[in-house]
Amino acid sequence: MEDFTPDQLNGITKGYYSMARALNEYQVTHWVELSHEQQLDLNAYQSSLLNRAQDLLTRSARPAYTNTIAVSASIEKTITDARGSLKRIRNVVVALNVGALTVALAAYVARADLRGIQTALRELEHLVILDE
Asked: From CA 52, how far away is CA 60, in angstroms rounded?
């Protein structure tokens, strides 16, 4: 088992930060369409992603994997795709699910739960193409 390299950690945390920003942009753009509860959900997703990024950067979470190159590349690519999908997704429920699954992915990464990561990656990839 090996830890993520500093470059891999930076790539993943940048993905979390940019996804939190993309969720905020989605929230602002679709403000009138969102209920109060949906606004709160989006705020929670943003906060969770920022906290997970901070945990990785401060090394309070030290996930270890057998193939960090493949794991980190999959995580970064899927987050990039999910972030980009928020610019074109019109269905608020789908956008909220993208945010929720990204938070779930971040939680699985922090716990080094490879099965959870694979499930979250698969579900995110499905949502990204669902609303095309």
From this structure: 10
Residue 131 near residue 90 (C-beta atoms within 8 A): yes
* CA nearest neighbour of 81 among 92, 89, 90: 89
Tokens representing residue 99 in the block: 């945010």
Compute the distance between CA of residue 90 and CA of residue 47 in angstroms, rounded to an integer. 23
| Three-state DSSP class for residue 87 | coil
Q: Are 82 and 128 in contact (CB under 8 A)?
A: yes
For residue 41, how many other CB atoms are within 10 A of its CB? 18
The radius of gyration of the chain's CA atoms, rounded to the nearest angstrom, is 14
pTM over 0.70: yes
Q: What is the pLDDT of residues 2-37, one digit of tens each?
A: 888 889 999 999 999 999 999 999 999 999 999 999
CB 75 within 8 A of CB 109: yes
Dump strand ranges (E) for 4-128: 64-65
Taking the C-alpha atoms of residue 128 and residue 83, their distance in angstroms, rounded to an integer, is 9
